[in-house]
Amino acid sequence: MMPADYIDQHTSAQVAQGQLTKEDVKRMKELYGIGDSSFGGIMKSYGQWLSKAVRGDFGVSFVYGRPVQEVIQKYMWISFAISLVALILNILISIPLGIVAATKQYGAVDYTVTVLAMTGISLPSFFFGALLLRLFSIQLGWFPLQGLSDATKILTGPEQVLDIIHHMVLPMVTLVVLSIGSLMRYTRTNMLEVLNSDYIRTARAKGLSEKVVIYKHAFRNTLIPIVTMLGGSIPGLFGGAMITETVFAIPGIGSTSYKAILQGDIPFVMGYMMFLAVLTVLGTILADVSYAIVDPRVKLQ
Amino acid sequence: MAKAKKDNGHYISRQEEKAIAKYNRKMTKELEAKKHRKNVSEDTYLTTMKDPKNIVEFDDLHTYFFTDAGTVKSVDGVTFSVPANSTVGVVGESGCGKSVTSLSLMQLVQAPQGQIVKGSIRYNDGEKCYDIAKMPSEAMRQIRGKDIAMIFQEPMTSLNPVFTIGYQLDEVTLLHNPGATKEEAKKKSIEMLTQVGIARPEGVYDNYPHELSGGMRQRVMIAMALVCNPKLIIADEPTTALDVTIQAQILDLLRSVREKIKGSIMLITHDLGVVAEMADFVVVMYAGRIIEMGTAKEIFLTPKHPYTVGLMKSKPVVSKKVDRLYSIPGQVPNPINMPQTCYFKDRCDRCHTACEGPYPSVRKFSDTHQVSCYLYDDTNTKDNDSMEVAK
Amino acid sequence: MKKSKKLLALLLCMTMILSLAACGKKKDPEDTKSTVAPTDTAGGEKSEVKPDVPEGRRDASTPRSAANENNPFVIGELTLDGKFSPFFGTSEPDRIVYEKTQAKLITNNELAEPVAGIDQPTIAWDFEMTTSDDQSKSTYKFWLKNGITFSDGHVVTADDVLFNLYVFLDPKYDGSTTLYSMNIEGLKAYQTQIADESSADAKLAEFAEAADKKVEAAIAGSGEAAVVDKLWELVKESVAADSGTLIANKYEPGDFGLDGPEDFLDTAQSSIILFYTASTLGKELIAYKNGAYVIDESTGLTVDKMSTYTEEDYINASMKCIKEAMTVPEYDEAFGFTTVDDAKKFYAEEEKAAYLEANKGTVKSISGITKGKEVCSDGVERETVTVVLNGVDPKAIWNFTFNVAPMHYYAGQERHDKANGVDNFGVDFSSREFMMEIKEFNGLPMGAGPYKITDVNNSENPTSDKFYENGICYLTANDNFMLGAPMIKYVRIKTINSGSELDSVLTGEVHISQPQASSTVINQITSDSSYSHLNYVLVDNLGYGYIGLSAELIPDINVRRALMSAMDTGLTLGSYPGGLATVIHRPLSQVSWAYPEGSTAMYPFDETGAASKDFFLKAGYTETADGKLLTPEGSKPSFKFTLPSDADKHPAGQVFLKAQEVLEKIGVEVIIDIDQNVLSKLEQSVISVWAAAWIATIDPDMFQTWHSDPAKNQAGSPKATGLYYKFENGTEEEKAILVRLNELIEQGRTTLNVDERKPIYSEALDKAMEMAVELPTYQRKNMYVYNKSVVDPGSITPAEKTTPYMGPIDFIWDVSLLDK
C-alpha cells in the first residue's frame, strides 16, 4: 500500500534520540497488529481483518483512536451535506443553462456557457478556494475564513443554523463552480442529439409550440442519461472533497481520510476503502434502477 | 495536384469560409426574424388562389440551406399544384429536393440553416387562402397538425419513446381542440386507432412505441395525422422503411383514408410502382427543379424528359430477363455550385448543342403535361403564361 | 415492468444507502456510566482539612467581567485527531485540547526546572529527589495536596496517582507516554510476573535454554515437526527477502560469475534467486548455454515452462534444492542469515508469553512504588507517593509530569471502589479489553484541570460528537480548579488550515494562533494598519539544526575539521530573515541551562580555504604546484553532501553551496546530492555528510546521542555519526577524546544537582565539538499572534517569562478578555 508505517512515523524521533529502544518499537507494533511485515505476516493480518470485517468490526483507527465505523460516520455527514447542496445547486444551474445553450446553438448563451464550462473544469480547487477566501473573507470580510461555525460567539438554535449556512457559502461556491462545467456540457450535448431526432420533428409536425417540444418531448429524453449519471453519483457524495475541505478547514471525511492515509493508519484506510467500494456498488445499482424507471424501454429483471 | 485544383468543389480557403459564414448569418438572421414576428395581422399573409379547386399551390418556391460550405439550393424554383380530392406523387432521386418541398409546406425546414427564400405557397382552407411562405410560425402552428398533417419515413424513430401511444395521440386532440377533456381525447384516439386497422386499440393505447412493430407504428403515425380531419396529408416515403407486404397494407390504408376524409394526399417517394398505384398526378423533380409533370397516365405511358424515360427504363420488370440492369449514368451535380445550363446535361443521352444554352424553359404538351427540356423546342413553348409561371 | 415496481426498487436502494450510513452507531459510554456527585470515599478528613489552595483564591462567587462571562476565547490549532485522552493522545493539537482539562503531578517552570507547590497547577504539594550513597538507587517522593477535586467534585487521592502509573506501566499499554522506559524497582518483575526479579533473569534464561534445546533437537532430526517447519519457514522468508533484494537491485547472473542473456532483466528477472542459490550451493541448478537455458531437474522446474514461472516458483525451487543439500545451520553459514538464532528467539518469546498468561496475578504490584501518609513540615497530614528507581537518571524526574486522570471516570466506579492502592490499583493487568475500555473515553477527557468539556449549547454532559463538533472543541470553566476559577468562562479550540494561521486572527475567527515566524508577517503586523489589532510574541524553538559528518566514512579527524572550516553556519539564517533564528555553536538547544554561554565556533569559517587546507595537510594530503590538494593516495579529493530537499529550500543548502565554492578553490570536489530518504539511511552508515535537525529534550543528558561505547549504548545516532566505529577503530587522539566524553556523560548522570552538572556539560560539549562529527547550525524562533483588542495583553505570560517551556497562554486560567 504505502511505505508509511504508523508506529515508525510516530516513534522515529524518539528512537533516533534513544528514548525508545528497538524492542519497544517492536512491542508497539505487535500491540497494534502490524508487527509481522513479511508477506506471510501480511496475509495473516489480512485474514484476521477480513474475518472481523465481515461481522462489521473494522477495528480501531490508529490515528483517531475510535472504531473505524464511528470515525467515518462522524465525518461523512458533513461532507454529505455540503456535497448534496452543491449537487442540487449544480443541477438547478447546469441543466437549464445546458438546455438554453443547446436550443440557441452558437448564440451568446452557448458561447458563454462553453467558456464557463471549460474554465470551471480547468480551475484547480485549491486555487479557486484560496482566491475566494482572499477576496471575500480577508479583503471584504463578508464570509468567514475557516470551519463550519463561529467559535467566538455563543449562539442559540436558529442562529446556529444560520451560522453554519453562512460558513458553507464559500466552500459550496467552490464546489459548484468547479462542477457545473461538465454537467452543463453534458446536458447541452444530449439536448442537441435529442433535438435532431425524428420524434421531435413529429412533435413539431403535430403543431406543438417550440416550448412544449423542448421542455416536454426533448427534455424527458435528455434527462434519461442525466438521471442515471446523477443517481449513480449520490453515494459518491459521502466520499468528500478532500482539497476543498482542507482549504476551508472543514472536518469532513475527505480531509480525515487523507490524514489517515499519510500516517499509515491501516485499519482506517481499509475500512474507508471498503466504505467507498460499497458506495460505488450502491451507486451503480442506483443508476441502473433509475435508468429503468426513467426509460420505459428498459426492463428490470 | 492539378486535378484537385480544378475540381475545387471540396476545398474552401479561409477567406471564403469567413465570407460564407458572414453571408449565412446575415440571411438567416433576416429570415428568422421574419418568421418569429408576433402579433401580425392576417392581412400580411392572406392571398387568393389561382384556381380555387386546388388545395395547395407551389409558386416558384426557393428553399435554400445556408451551410458552412456554401448555399445549397435544395428547392430551386418549383411550381405545381395539389388539387382537392386527389393524390399527387412527387418522385425523384435522393437529394432532389422532394422532402424539402413538403417540409417547406409545413414550415418544418431545419432552421436556422434552411429558409424559404423566395416564392409563395398558397394554401386554401376552404374559406381563406394563406401564403405559407409569408406566415409567421405562430400562425402556422394553428394549421400544422390540424389542417395539414404529415407522416414520415422512419416509423421506428418517429414516435417519442418515453410517452405512451395514447398520450401522444391525445396530445394532438388536446392541442387543437381547446376545451376538450381527457376522456374525449381518449375516445377520439381509440377511434382513430380502430380506423387505421389496429386490432386492440385499448391495449395499444397504453403501449410504448418500442412495444409495437414497424407496421403498427406507421399506422399509429397515420392515426395521429388523421385525428383532426386534415385537408391535406403529406406522406414522405411512408413505406420505404417497411417490408413489401406491410407496404401494400399501408398503401391500401392510405387510399381508404383519403376517400374517407375527402382530402388530398401529397405522396413523396422514389418508388415508381407506388406512384403508379396511388397517384393521380405525378411531379418529377431533379436537383431542386421540376423537370416534368403530368397525370399518371401521361407520365407512365408517354414520358418526355430523358430523365423520366431513364427512370422508367430503370425499373426492373419481374418477368423480363436482361443481361444488365439499366441505370442512368453519372451523378447529381454538386448542389452548391449548380451550373447555369440544364442540370441533366452531363448524364443525358440525348444531349445536343442547344443544351449548352441556359436552363430550358417549360414546354407544355397538354393542360396537365409539361416538361423542361430543349428536345421539345418545336412544340408551342413560347406560351406567355408558362414563361411567367416558370421563371 | 410497471412503473410502481420500479419506484419501489428505487426506494429500496435509497433505504440501503441511508441504513449503511446510520449503521454501527454506538451508544456513547456516557449513557451507561453515572456521573452522580461523589460520596465521601476518603474518610472523614475532607470536611475538616483545609484544601491546599493559594490564599485569596478567586472562586465562583466572584463575578466575571462582561467579556469574560459572555465571550468565548478561541484558540486556533491545526487539525485535531480526536484522541483527547491523557493516556492515548498522540498529536500536539490534541494535547493542547485535553491538557486544559488535566492537572499534572508536577510540572516545569519557564526555566525548565521541575516544580510543584500550592501556587503551581500541580497535584503534588511538594516533591523530593534523593540518591543513595552508592548511586544504586534514587528515590522520588511526592506529597499530594489535600482537598483537590476533579471537575465533577470527586477528590483526588494517591490511589488516582497510582492508577495512572499502573496504566502507563501495564504491558498492554500502547500509548505514547514512555514511563515504562524508567528502570523502576520491581517493574520487571511486575511486567513479566516473575516475583523474584533476580530470578527473572534466570527465568528468561530458562526460556532461552528451552527454546535452544527445541531448535537444536529439530536440527538434529529428533525434534518436533512444528519446530522443523518453523525453521524452514524462516529459511524461506530469508530466501524470499534475498530474492526481493536481488530483483530490486537488478542483479544479473553475471554478478555471480554465471552466464546470462543480454535481456535477462526484461525476460527472466524473477529467476535470479535460482542463479544465486546455484552459485552459493556450487551446483548447476540453472545455466544459460549457447543461447538457451538449462535447468537441472532437481529444481522441479522445466525450461519450456519458464515463461509461466513467477518469483514464487523460483523461490520454492530454491527452497527445494537448499533443503536437499543442507541443514539449516549450514544454510545460515552459506547464505549469511541467522535463521537458527531467529528461531530460538521466536520460541523463547513464545515460552515467555505462555508463562505470563499462566502466571498472571503472581506479582500484584510494583515493589518500587508505594503510597503513605505523613505529617508535613507545616503540620498538616498529607498523602505521599514514593517511586524508587534502580540507578541514577537525572532525566527521570521529567517522567513524572504526567497528567493525573480520575480513576472512577476512566476505569469505572466499580473498579475505583475495589482499588486500595496496595494490591489493587483499578487496573486489569495485561488486558487488552481494559485498555479498550479506557479508549472509550478518547473523546471525553476529564480531570482536575482549569476547564471541562461541554458543547456548543454549554450542556453539562456532552457526547463526544458534540464536544468536538464541526472542527471545534468546546470547553467551559471548571470553577473547582485549584488555582482559582478561570477568568474566561468559555474557551474553544478551532481547527484552522496550515497556512491560514495569520489570516484567521486577522479576520477574527480565532484570537490566537501560531503562524510560521517570518519577517513579512512581523512587518505586516507592525506597519500595516489593517493589522493594527494584532500583536506577536517570539519564542525560541525547542530544537536546533545541525550538519552531521560520519566518522566512519570520513575517518580522519583532521579531514572532518577541514570540512567544518569551510562551512559558514551563518548562511542558515538566510532562511529565517529578520532575527528569527540565531546561530549556535554547541550541539545543545540554547534555551537549556546547560548551554555554555558565550561559546564560539570551534572551527571558524575561513572563506579563503586556508584553514581547511591546513587541516587537510595535517591529514596527510599533499599540495600540487598550483595550490590544489591531492589525497594521500594521490587522487583528487571528493566528498558527497546530502540534503533531504533542494538546496534552495533547505536552510543548510546555502551552507553546502558556499562550502562547495570554498573547497573548489583548494581543489577539493564537493557533490551535493538530494535524497528524500536521507534520514532513514543514516543508520546504515552510507551517508557521509548531511543536514538535519534535532528536537531538543528538556534535560541536557547526552547519553543516547554521544555515548560511544557500544556495550553500554545501542541507540541509533552514534551509529550514524560513526562514534561506535571510532570507539573501536579510532586513532589514539580520537579514542582519548571519546573516552573522556563518555566519562563526562556518565558523570553528568550521577547527580541531580543542576549546578554540579553545568560545568560537566560545558566540557562535554567542547569534547563533542572536538570530535568534529556534528556542526550545530541554527536555532529558529516560533511565533504566536494574538488579537490584542480581544485578549488583554497584560493577562498573558509576560515577555521575560515566555520561553519554549512556557507559552503565552499556558496559564490559561489567568488570561482575560477585554471588555469592548
UniProtKB/TrEMBL annotation, chain A:
The chain crosses the membrane at residues 75-101, 113-136, 164-184, 223-250, 270-294. GO terms for biological process: transmembrane transport. It is a multi-pass membrane protein. GO terms for cellular component: plasma membrane. It holds the Pfam family BPD_transp_1. The keyword Cytoplasm does not apply. This is Peptide/nickel transport system permease protein. It comes from Anaerocolumna aminovalerica.
UniProtKB/TrEMBL annotation, chain B:
One of its GO terms (biological process) is peptide transport. Signal peptide: none annotated. Keywords: ATP-binding, Cell membrane, Membrane, Nucleotide-binding, Transport. Belongs to the ABC transporter superfamily. CDD domains: ABC_NikE_OppD_transporters. GO terms for cellular component: plasma membrane. It comes from the Bacteria. GO terms for molecular function: ATP binding; ATP hydrolysis activity. Pfam families: ABC_tran, oligo_HPY. The lineage of its organism: Bacteria, Bacillati, Bacillota, Clostridia, Lachnospirales. This is Peptide/nickel transport system ATP-binding protein. It comes from Anaerocolumna aminovalerica. It is a peripheral membrane protein.
UniProtKB/TrEMBL annotation, chain C:
Residues 24-69 are annotated as: Disordered. Keywords: Signal, Transport. Residues 1-21 form the signal peptide. InterPro entries: SBP_5 (IPR039424), SBP_5_dom (IPR000914). GO terms for molecular function: peptide transmembrane transporter activity. The keyword Acyltransferase does not apply. Residues 134-195, 382-707 form the Solute-binding protein family domain. Residues 43-61 have a biased composition (Basic and acidic residues). Belongs to the bacterial solute-binding protein 5 family. PANTHER family: OLIGOPEPTIDE-BINDING PROTEIN APPA, PERIPLASMIC BINDING COMPONENT OF ABC TRANSPORTER. This is ABC-type transport system, substrate-binding protein.
